[in-house]
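Dear H.,

Thanks for agreeing to be a second pair of eyes. The structure we're designing against is below in token form, covering all 434 positions.
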């Protein structure tokens, strides 16, 4: 029986999602658990698995559509099934999807099937016939290589009159399909299939790689641009002597090891920042339009680098949790991010963010604020540095902290005071007990 497939709700706070790209086409046979499409939110990109096996009878919302959670995006059922009752109240189909309810879907997954059939939408086939274009010459850009209406409209055949050289029919088809101008090929005699293939290979090797942003990287690009244009930001950098923090970690590490927990400098700095944020509530705020919200608890995010981009899950209520709890929850968030199982709720609600580039030898940088937060702390590399202590010169592990703050709310004095307080806690960790 046909079933409406709705926009999934990946987390309690998710209200809508954008369809990044469909992985299947109308007429495809789908197994339960197959990836139907990519769903993008402002925080994450998820692969949406089919909850039902059957044939994809209709795509209600196409690529790029933003849909409210639990609203229909597609219909899956059995071939030839009447879906008219499910379409009641749904917007009219696009021109290339129009079909009578009883019309059997065309099931052709590859660009050209073993039997030589061409995979193209009904409207694309009709348009190609009207224009007298051989579909076999067109390279499809739709799902699984299917030929779309745009492919037909954008196709430009090579006219015989435009050719100043002799070329075989197969070579001519290859050139037309790839957009190669045969007149630019020099050589003796007739141009053959192998000549075109060699030219295409050489051209491909000399061309730059062009990548269309999608998924997480597209979302990150959009959010970073918005943040850059939203916040008049200033970055303040302060050196910190990390000697006491290193000793503090070394003393606690054996106990953490007994509990099967990992203790890193990130965990310690998160705990320190949580305490400092309670003392400076205007830093622990968020600004949306003209409304400033001062949060009673510190939900601290940690930027996690993945091949596809950055995720910033956050540990809720760091100010009320022990260092061991912060360490345990942070490591779980990191593991979830790397395995692709991050919960949407872990990505929202943050009040302050940490980003650590110290492992790469970075000694100062200007991180971009994670909107609508008001500040972000960049952690730099520890570098053994000669410093003057009293009237002596000593070698100490010095570490810069780079605080980027939204100057609409956090002026220079407040930012400096907040950063100074973080430094005091890190240089004297016992203050956390006071």
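And this is the sequence the design step returned. I haven't edited it by hand at all.
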């Amino acid at each position: 029986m046909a079933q409406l497939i709705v926009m999934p709700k990946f987390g309690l706070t998710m209200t809508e999602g954008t369809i990044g790209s469909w992985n299947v086409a109308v007429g495809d046979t789908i197994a339960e658990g197959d990836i139907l499409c990519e769903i993008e939110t402002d925080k994450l990109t998820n692969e949406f698995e089919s909850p039902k096996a059957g044939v994809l009878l209709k795509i209600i919302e196409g690529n790029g559509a933003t849909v409210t959670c639990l609203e229909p995006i597609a219909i899956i059922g059995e071939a030839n099934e009447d879906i008219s009752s499910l379409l009641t109240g749904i917007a009219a189909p696009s021109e290339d999807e129009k079909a009578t309810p009883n019309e059997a879907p065309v099931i052709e997954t590859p660009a050209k099937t073993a039997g030589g059939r061409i995979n193209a939408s009904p409207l694309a086939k009709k348009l190609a016939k009207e224009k007298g274009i051989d579909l076999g010459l067109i390279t499809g850009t739709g799902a699984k290589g299917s030929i779309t209406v745009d492919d037909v409209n954008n196709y430009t055949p090579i006219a015989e009159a435009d050719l100043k050289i002799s070329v075989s029919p197969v070579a001519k088809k290859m050139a037309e399909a790839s957009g190669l101008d045969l007149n630019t090929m020099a050589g003796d005699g007739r141009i053959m299939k192998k000549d075109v293939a060699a030219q295409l290979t050489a051209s491909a090797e000399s061309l730059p790689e062009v990548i269309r942003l999608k998924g997480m990287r597209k979302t990150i690009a959009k959010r970073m641009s918005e943040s850059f244009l939203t916040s008049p930001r200033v970055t303040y950098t302060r050196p910190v002597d990390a000697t006491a923090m290193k000793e503090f970690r070394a003393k606690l590490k054996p106990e953490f090891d007994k509990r099967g927990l990992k203790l890193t400098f990130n965990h310690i700095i998160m705990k320190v920042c949580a305490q400092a944020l309670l003392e400076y509530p205007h830093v622990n705020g968020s600004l949306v339009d003209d409304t400033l919200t001062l949060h009673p608890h510190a939900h601290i995010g940690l930027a996690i680098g993945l091949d596809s981009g950055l995720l910033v899950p956050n540990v809720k209520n760091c100010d009320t949790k022990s260092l061991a709890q912060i360490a345990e929850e942070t490591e779980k968030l990191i593991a979830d991010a790397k395995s692709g199982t991050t919960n949407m709720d872990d990505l929202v609600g943050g009040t302050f963010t940490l980003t650590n580039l110290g492992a790469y030898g970075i000694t100062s940088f200007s991180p971009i604020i994670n909107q609508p937060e008001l500040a972000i702390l960049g952690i730099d590399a520890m570098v053994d540095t000669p410093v003057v202590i009293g009237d002596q010169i000593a070698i100490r592990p010095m570490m810069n902290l780079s605080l980027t703050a939204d100057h609409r709310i956090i002026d220079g004095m407040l930012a400096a005071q907040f950063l100074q307080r973080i430094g005091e806690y890190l240089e004297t960790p016992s203050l956390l007990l006071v």
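Two observations from my side: Residues 93-115 have pLDDT under 50 and may be disordered. The CA atoms of residues 179 and 203 lie 12 Å apart.

Warmly,
E.
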